[in-house]
Amino acid sequence: MKIVHVSAECFPVAKVGGLGDVVGALPKYLNQVKDTEAMVVMPYIYNQFTKSHDLTIDHKAVLPFGESLLDVTILKNDDLDFPLYLVQIEGFSHRHQPYGYDDDYHFYIAFQTAVLNWIHQWKALPDVIHCHDYHTGFIPFMMKYCHQFPKFREIASVFTIHNGEYQGIMGKNMADYLPWFDVWQFPLLVWDNDLNAMASAIKCAWRVTTVSPQYMKELMSQGRSIDDLFQQEASKCLGILNGIDDQVWNPATDENLVKNYTVKDIKSGKAANKEHLCRKYGFNPDYPLISFIGRFTDQKGVDVLADAIWQAISIFDLPINFLVVGSGDLEMESGLEEMNNYLDERYNTYIGYNEAFARLVYAGSDFMVMPSRFEPCGLNQFYTLRYGGVPMVRTVGGLLDSIIDFGDEGGTGIRFIHLSSEDLLHAFQRAMYLHEDEKNFLSLKKNNMKKDFSWQKSAEKYINLYQDLIN
């Protein structure tokens, strides 16, 4: 069985968020299954990876695009656990990041068309083309209805939604850049009177998945127009919970830690990493350390978290350390840094993205807070468990699917319902009392490290999905 994953991101080549982690791990675990071959196709990114790794030319072509002809080069790299193909298209911005360019919509239509032109020439076609997020959302339509791709009519297409907020909404005139199709199929590209790449994929893909069962339910009931489409196509929609690469995320071997550790020496291992962070930021190591790692966006609830931290220290004087790590919205960055001038040594920030430092924070933190407004899956809770910490999560999306409150049987973390300062403050107090109960706290952390959220379990579900489609 041959599966082609098409994505805008793939770790370690280029990663903005969870999409990059998923596409960088799932094919690796699929390739561990007998008679399965998975590969990744993504845009060429001008960065350290492409500069430092050997790339060989696999294919060159000329792509008709509107009134232009574009030179396309597809480069191959064999250094990962799966074949990686990078699509270079001249005539667009030199992309040092996957997104954020004025020509994004044009580029990603050209990218999708170039990928299908190339695959259509293969002697042995894939069994499944697995598309990820709106940047690949027109592929299922083109496979079915564009006349230059007749070989794709019987090839299965899967579309996975990693974040339903980004749908690829654009003017109808952008359809002029797609390969030739019959005009009566135009409605399959449209939703709410605009071209909508995600809506098109939901209509045309053989299966539509998202990264947790709960998030699929939420996509059908958020009160937005596109909810109706999810409900109409519900019979082919399902949620499969993400996993993590537990070989890459392993506190026993992680070179970024001050001290490596396993379940057997978790107490001394986490203490050593926590003490390092406390010295660096002036925290009292006897207090629990609650950290946040993520993008500073409305989605992540950072605005409410900031208010709750302010109240926890300046009003309620809780003996808790808070470390906020991340970047994003400039106003949020400025506000979080400004809080350093008014709060004492129980609060600090690290503004920026540094994966090596993030791993140290997972190892040294007692708790990891995730106050998301919505969360398709989330991966930080899995990293926290893997490194023997306790996630503090709002009950939405994949956070609800993956974390059980420590007060219940089989509990792994602290859950709260509402995105409010009051609920967060209550969660902080529960964390404080749990931290004081050393015996039960240590037992909980050990049990968390033993949990299996690896990609092996999730990959089996994808294999079953692919096999059902092929059969």
TrEMBL record:
This is Glycogen synthase. Its EC number is 2.4.1.21. It catalyses: [(1->4)-alpha-D-glucosyl](n) + ADP-alpha-D-glucose = [(1->4)-alpha-D-glucosyl](n+1) + ADP + H(+). Keywords: Glycogen biosynthesis, Glycosyltransferase, Transferase. ADP-alpha-D-glucose binds at residue 15. Synthesizes alpha-1,4-glucan chains using ADP-glucose. HAMAP family: Glycogen_synth. It is an enzyme of class 2 (transferase). The keyword Transferase applies. GO terms for molecular function: alpha-1,4-glucan glucosyltransferase (ADP-glucose donor) activity; alpha-1,4-glucan glucosyltransferase (UDP-glucose donor) activity. Belongs to the glycosyltransferase 1 family. Bacterial/plant glycogen synthase subfamily. Pathway: Glycan biosynthesis; glycogen biosynthesis. GO terms for biological process: glycogen biosynthetic process. PANTHER family: ALPHA AMYLASE DOMAIN-CONTAINING PROTEIN (PTHR45825:SF11), GRANULE-BOUND STARCH SYNTHASE 1, CHLOROPLASTIC/AMYLOPLASTIC (PTHR45825). Residues 2-230 form the Starch synthase catalytic domain.
